[in-house]
Design a protein that fits this description.
CATH topology of the largest domain: Rossmann fold
Radius of gyration: 20 Å
CATH superfamily of the largest domain: NAD(P)-binding Rossmann-like Domain
Number of domains: 2
CATH architecture of the largest domain: 3-Layer(aba) Sandwich
Helix content: 40-55%
Largest sheet: 7 strands, parallel
Number of helices: 11
Order of helices and strands: EHEHEHEHHEHEEHEEEHEEHEHH
Strand order of the largest sheet: 3-2-1-4-5-6-11
Number of strands: 13
Bound molecules: ligand G4F
CATH class of the largest domain: Alpha Beta
Strand content: 15-25%
Distance between the termini: 43 Å
Shape: globular
């Protein structure tokens, strides 16, 4: 049975990747932080299944800065594939906590690469990089050769990590890949990211639990995909004969306003009646437009995005209506 190790297994992408790998017959190991108060809801359906948890899915406690423990987990589990998804992934928050963002996302990745460098049985390594590395790019759409020009602490941390993954591939021959992921959403998205904040609020406004939705920059435009599609690209990256970096994107652009329209249409409300602008959500520097060119992933990995944004937003609103109804009933 092929074995895989995942950091960030309790997150949106971690949970979809776990499902994908289990469906492919893998044994899956996840690293979770003992100090974290994270509710492991996204994995509940798997950890409560005795046929899965403890037989094909295992969780191991470690802080990523605890190199000794992480090394021990790697030596014990001997994974063939190692997916590094953990990090402080909220761009707005990275302005408030730049040091810990860089420590966790930048140095945290370097520490893992250093551990791999010393291992006899090196797993293939996938780093979940981000389109935030492009910041304010000179070219559109962005591909793997687009120069990095990050404008947020998160983007700077990810640029450092991305470059280190390349360096360890080129200098030490480690099979390390960057999946340069553009925004990707799902009903499992964290509540502070704009799509989920919008779908959750649309549901709560529809059901009378709130009246207003406070947002920041409505002019931001992004290439939003579906998280389930993106973890498939991550897996495919490690099945290729040689390691490389891949832009994972849809090539389609939408604005925050369009997301508002899609979500509020689903609950038959007018978003203009409910949205207010709160300067607290406007970032010191925001990326205005990011759109990816996923040609390399399509040509070399046979990957393409299957679900469009309208479908994802509809799924998210429906899931949030269900959650809100349960809240009301309890
Ligand atoms: O949903 P967001 O917070 O996503 P952002 O900043 O693009 O970052 C996400 O995608 C990256 C990939 O490119 C990941 F690397 C990163 O980890 C994360 O997953 O914000 C999207 C847009 C921005 O322009 C933001 O300014 O929405 C705008 N926005 C407007 N009001 C808001 C809000 N964003 C948030 N989070 N909250 C607001 O109230």
């Amino acid at each position: 049975m092929t074995s895989a190790l995942i950091t960030g297994i309790t997150g949106q992408d971690g949970s979809y990747l776990t499902e994908l790998l289990l469906a492919k017959g893998y044994q899956v190991h996840g690293i979770v932080r003992r100090s974290s108060s994270t509710v492991r809801q996204r994995l509940d359906h798997l950890t409560s299944d005795p046929d899965v948890y403890g037989s094909r899915l295992f969780l191991h406690y470690a802080e990523l800065e605890d190199v000794t423990t992480v090394r021990r987990i790697l030596q014990k589990t001997r994974p063939a594939e190692f997916y590094h998804l953990a990090g402080q992934s909220h761009v707005g928050t990275s302005f408030e906590v730049p040091e810990s963002t860089c420590e966790f996302s930048g140095m945290g990745t370097l520490r893992l690469l250093e551990i791999l460098r010393d291992l006899d049985n090196q797993p293939k390594f996938l780093h979940a990089s981000s389109s935030e590395i492009f910041g304010r790019p000179q070219v559109s759409p962005q591909d793997e050769s687009t120069p990095m020009n990050p404008v947020t602490p998160y983007g700077v941390a990810k640029a450092f990590a991305t470059q280190m993954v390349r360096l360890y591939r080129e200098s030490y021959g480690i099979f390390s890949c960057n999946a340069i992921c553009f925004n990707h959403e799902s009903p499992r998205r964290g509540e502070s990211f704009v799509t989920r904040k919008i779908t959750r609020s649309a549901a709560r406004i529809r059901l009378g639990l709130q009246t207003e939705l406070a947002l920041g920059n409505l002019d931001g435009r992004r290439d939003w995909g579906f998280a389930g599609d993106y973890v498939d690209a991550m897996w495919r990256s490690l099945q290729a004969p040689t390691p490389n970096d891949y832009v994972i994107a849809t090539g389609q652009v939408h604005s925050v306003r369009e997301v508002l329209q899609m979500a509020f249409d689903e609950v038959e409300l007018n978003w203009q009646d409910h949205v207010v602008i709160d300067p607290k959500f406007i970032r010191p520097a925001d990326v205005e437009l990011l759109v990816g060119d996923p040609s390399r992933a399509r040509e070399r990995l046979g990957w393409k995005p299957l679900q469009d944004l309208a479908t994802t937003i509809r799924q998210m609103v429906r899931a949030d209506l269900e959650i809100t109804r349960k809240e009301l009933a309890s």
